[in-house]
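PROTEIN ENTRY
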Amino acid sequence: MGNALINTAQGEVEVVAGERLRFGGSGNTNAGEINNFGGMVRFAQDLTNENGGFIGGRDTIFRFGGGLTNNGEIGLSVGVHDILGSIDNTINGRVMVAGQSTATFYGDMTNDGDIFTGQGSQSVFLGDVTGSGNFPGTGTVEFAGAGVPTATRTITRDT
């Protein structure tokens, strides 16, 4: 689609295995749900996940070409998740990696909210990570980029 996504609180976008969905416009907003079950969802420009908005799925690829501002929730469960593009996880934002998942974040991450990694799951950050947010949960968190965040949980950085 060449246009922007304006997904209201009652709206739902769903992609299943083998499908690809691309939004080419700028000013993308999500107040509803974006569910990805094995496909790829791509935003060529910026996306704001509003307070009350949900982005998630199983075995996902999300590409945020213009970056993602997350004021809502991102839920990644079961499988491998590739998240490309920079993310600003605001004070209201929550990212959850659970259900024996591995989520790899390829862009820079500013975390002023929560990034939860559940038992048996793994969150991998390949870009710089900054912010004063929390990293709760008992799963594995790895930082491979240059930045190591100030967090309430002690997390080691692989060197």
About this structure: The mean pLDDT is 92. The longest strand covers residues 73-84.
